[in-house]
Amino acid sequence: MPGGKAAGVRCVQLTGEYLCALHGTSAKPAVCNGLKPMPEMCGADRGQALDYLDRLERETAPGE
Ligand code: SF4
């Protein structure tokens, strides 16, 4: 995404099936390729994974 993906914004490369449209291509951002999923990130279900992501975004948001 031009300028990067802002917190809370759905990536434009995420398909309707929650798959990365850039997976397996050289266009996939390095930060995405470098992400190593861990059980604590995924939780037991999609809701827990989204809660974790939301917390990460809040904790790494630029200060005011
Ligand atoms: S892996 Fe990266 S490029 Fe692909 S959908 Fe997720 S955030 Fe977007």
What does this entry look like structurally?
The chain is mainly alpha-helical and 64 residues long. Helix content is 36%, strand content 0%. The chain has three helices and no strands. Iron/sulfur cluster is lined by residues 11, 13-14, 20, 22, 28-29, 32.
Concise overview:
The protein is 36% helix and 0% strand. With 64 residues, it is mainly alpha-helical. The radius of gyration is 13 Å and the shape is globular.
Write the layout of secondary structure elements.
Elements: H1 30-34, H2 39-42, H3 46-59
Bound molecules: iron/sulfur cluster.
Iron/sulfur cluster (SF4) binds at residues 11, 13-14, 20, 22, 28-29, 32.
Task: Please supply descriptive tags for the structure shown above.
64 residues; mainly alpha; 36% helix; binds iron/sulfur cluster
The low-confidence runs, each spanning 5 or more residues with pLDDT under 50, are none
- Broad shape: globular
List bound small molecules: iron/sulfur cluster
Q: Mind telling me the C-alpha Rg?
A: 13 Å
Distance between the termini: 24 Å
Structural class of the secondary structure composition? mainly alpha
Portion in helices = 25-40%
**Beta-strand content estimate:** under 5%
H/E topology pattern: HHH
How many beta-strand runs?
Answer: 0
